[in-house]
Amino acid sequence: MRALTYHGPGRRTWGDVPDPVIREPEDAVVRVDAVTICGTDLHILKGDVPEVTEGRILGHEAVGTVVQTGSAVRTVTAGDRVLVSCISACGRCADCRAAAYGQCTGGGGWILGHLVDGTQAEFVRTPFADNSLHRLPATVSDDRALLLADILPTAYEVGVRNGRVAPGDTVAVLGAGPIGLAAVLTARLYSPGRIIAVDTDRNRLDAAEQAGATDVLDAAATDDEIRRLTPDGRGVDVAVEAVGIPETFERCTRIVRPGGRVANVGVHGRPAVLHLEDLWIRNLTITTGLVDTSTTPLLLRMLAAGSLDVGGLITHRFGLDEMQDAYDVFSEAAASGALKVALFRT
DSSP string covering 166-211, please? Predict the structure, then answer.
């Protein structure tokens, strides 16, 4: 089969690799029908994730068709159309039993495209298939289902839910890329009073308005300009960091009100300064997290019911063999206007 493989910082190849096979009784092999590229893949290509070894097939999001299952798999069978989740879960360890699947100690967690070969390929081996694949209703299209593999549960769980967004809150989302836009969409489920999106890219700010942001600001805006959009000028109730650079994390800690919450979602490859000399007195809550995907079934039901309008998130579509072109477009988002790219089997 053909796949996208990593060969050190800045080097990737689309070429022939061995087909995946069943290795464990709980495995399934899935034919990839639709796949996408994540900002985390770009971090890997920059060298920010040293655990990824040379030759690894990248990718952790896909929709596909089960072609083979191991002897212990019970909930999916050959021919089933499934969502391949970014998180694999053994289902047995203490973390999995607490629904903290991202922290699985039984061989799961974020492993696809990280510690084992991933989804940017014609076929993928998926460990712990019973807990890590989700059967899809016919009413949910491949491209919409693809958004449930990572960005929607990540934004919802690590951004909105960790940030404890509540009715009437003022929420700032720093970064209006795919994760930030998904945070805007899912924050709306809690009826905040205001959602402020901040980004450097006008196209992404326009997309944030379409997703439901009440206010959009260029990143050049001052902290005071953000605070002036809050009811009493003291700062936002929740700041969601959706970029993954020190500057935006540190800004989140400055613009949040006393007693407010900072929910870090971005993948960071450099240290950020925690200014405790200023923050110790402000009663802030700062959360970090890897998505658990425990809310994927809920979000899937909402998507099937039409309660989540995700139609504007995928801006570019490619055939699977156009993987290199898709990476170029996604990595140059400011020039291409790309939000989420999707690749389909032709």
Answer: -TT-EEEEE--SHHHHHHHHHHGGG--SEEEEEES-HHHHHHHHHH
